[in-house]
Structure formats: structure tokens, C-alpha cells
Amino acid sequence: MSSDLRDLYQQVIVDHSKSPRNFRILEGANRTVEGYNPLCGDRITIFLKMEGDVVKDLSFQGSGCAISTASASLLTEALKGKNLSEAEALFESFHDLVTGLQPVHEEPEKLGKLAAFSGVCDYPTRVKCATLAWHTLRSALKGEEKTVSTE
Ligand code: ZN
Predict the structure, then answer these.
(1) DSSP state of 102
(2) Residue span of the structural domain in which 118 resides
(3) The pTM is what?
(4) What is the per-residue burial (b if ≥16 Cβ within 10 Å, else e) of 102-134?
(5) Which of 25, 53, 83, 114 is 20 to 30 A from 90, comparing alpha carbons?
């Protein structure tokens, strides 16, 4: 990865951790799931408003490190308006990215801004920070109303 690209990715993460998007309680949410990453202490609540199999709207609240907050913020931007199979595909692409299974340069357009997390695979302890919101979201999509823990 070029240093320019690395800087750009860093900026995206800093921006979203300092001013997270969709950081609020969602009025009319029909699914709410909490996630917890004991390794780092990150806590997150995802609010989902589903219409059929489409994510009509979503938001989050919580407190955690920069990586977990930025990840949740970018997730809410990426998932709005997606249907269940699109959401699942994005979850898998993101998971492969941060665990290093799929180098970002192979399909950068599929992930968009989420590619900013490509550096996370070099820091195994941060992978759970980056995926917390996604595991929580997945549980919410499946209609499992419970607390998700990464441990
Ligand atoms: Zn964290």
C-alpha cells in the first residue's frame, strides 16, 4: 500500500471516530442489539428499522475506541437501503478485509470507504474493535435480540 493511500485511510478513520455519523437513538427502530468487546472495552448499541428485508434506516450509540466508533459510523452509512443479502455480502467482504483473507486491492470498489480498515489486519488485537459493530448488526438482522460479545 502506498503511503498516500495509508494517509487517506487514516483520515477516514479519524474523521468518523471524531464525528460519527448516525450516532443517535433511532425513532421507530424495530430491532435493537447491544455489542460488547471485553478485550478493549468497546460497547455499542445498533438500532435498526427494517421494512421487509430492507434496512430502511439504522443508527448506533455507545462508547469505544477510535477504531470501533469509526467502524460503526461507516457501517451505518454503508448499510442504509441495503437488503439482507447485500448486507450479508458486505459483512463477509469486510470480515475478509480486516482478517487479511482478502487484500483490498482485489476488489476496492466493493467496499468503498470501508477499505479504510484494510490496515487493521496487521493488528490482530484491533480486529475485534473493527468487527464489533458488524457482528452486532448481523445479530440484529437475524432478529436475535440479545447482547453480542466478541469473546
Ligand atoms: Zn476497541
Answers:
(1) S
(2) 3-149
(3) 0.92
(4) bebeeeeeebebbbbbbbbbeeeebbbbbbbbb
(5) 25
Q: What is the Å distance from ligand 1's center to 45 Cα?
A: 14
Q: Quote the number of domains for the chain.
A: 1
What sign does the dihedral 16-1-92-35 (CA atoms) show? negative
- Ligand 1 mean position, distance from CA 64 (Å): 6
Per-residue pLDDT, averaged over 14-29, amounts to 97
Task: Tell how far the Cα of 118 is from the centroid of ligand 1, in angstroms.
Answer: 16
Q: Which residues neighbour ligand 1 (ion) by CB within 5 Å?
A: 40, 42, 65, 68, 129
* H/E segment holding residue 86: helix 84-98
Cell, residue 68: 470501533
Is the pLDDT at 2 greater than 80, yes or no? no
- What CATH number does residue 138 fall under? 3.90.1010.10
pLDDT for residue 108:
63
CA 51 – ligand 1 centroid, Å: 31
